[in-house]
Amino acid sequence: MNSTDNPIVKIPAGNTNVYLIRNGNSSVLVDAGEKGSERKILKALEMYGLKPEDIHLIVMTHTHYDHAGSLKALKDATGAKVLVHRNEADNLGSGYTPLPKGTKLFSKIIVALGKNLMKGVARYEPVKPDILVDDQYDLTPHNLPAYILNTPGHTSGSITLILKNNDAFIGDVAFNIAGFGIYPPFANDQTTLMQTWRKLLDSGCERFFPGHGRMIPRSKFKRNLQKRA
Question: Is residue 119's pLDDT more than 80?
């Protein structure tokens, strides 16, 4: 990686985090934020001395509207390739991913009430992905010392980007919003989600960067898994 200082930039994009991994003309975006976030994201590139065409790859941790809302605009602006798990490719191509199940009382109520109301909100401009991944995918051919790991539970096609320094960009595998804990309020398969948490800890990751909220240190992630177990 070319940057000598911290290469990770968190860009708030609506209620969702977009992460810029600075790596010269092989820089990467993790997720694309809510609809209308593209100007803010492109402005962040400029602030760090990057041009839109320096974004080589956009990695989608999953394809819910709050993560994919500005993807089409960013792909058009940067010319970057879009990487997504095979299980989510059709959703991305149609511009709609169904809401996941609620894991807590309030989120179950949201899902129950929002099945019809949210259909319009949850749509986004469709994008044809360039790279489909399955269980694991090496990013070193893209000039990034990192790999992709399938981390299902929130959705079956959720993925995590793991840098070789053990930083993990986990999408909605966990949250870290004050007062809510790190267990995600939405997940389609909670048993699989706990297996994913173990997989991430077994990978040796030290810092977990979620799609919502602040970075989660390994100690906090491990402590929450032990409580769940």
Answer: no
DSSP for the chain reads: ---SS--EEEEEETTEEEEEE-BTBTEEEE--BSTT-HHHHHHHHHHTT--GGGEEEEE-S---HHHHTTHHHHHHHH--EEEEEGGGHHHHHHTB-PPPPBSSHHHHHHHHHHHHHHHHHTB------SEEE-SEEE-GGGT-SEEEEE--SSSTT-EEEEETTSEEEEETSS-B-TTS-SS-SB-S-HHHHHHHHHHHHHTT--EEEESSBS-EEHHHHHHHHHHH-
Residue 3 lies in a domain: no
Domain count, the chain: 1
In degrees to the nearest 10, what's the CA dihedral of 143, 19, 104, 64?
A: -80
Residues spanned by the domain of 19: 8-228
Q: Residue 33 pLDDT > 60, yes or no? A: yes
- Evaluate whether residue 1 is within a structural domain: no
Residue 41 binned pLDDT confidence (cut-offs 50, 70, 90): very high
Q: Is residue 2 part of a domain?
A: no
CATH assignment at residue 122: 3.60.15.10
